[in-house]
Amino acid sequence: MKKSQRISGLVAALDLPLQSAHDPRYLGYFACFNDGLYYEAHDVLEDLWLHDKHGPDGAFFKGLIQLAGAFVHLKKHRLRPDHPKDRGRLAPASRLFTLARRNLLPFAPQHRDLDVAKVCRLCDRLSLALASSKFRENPLSTAHPPRIDLA
Question: Any idea of the CA torsion for 27, 32, 38, 39, to the nearest 10 degrees?
Answer without folding.
Answer: -90
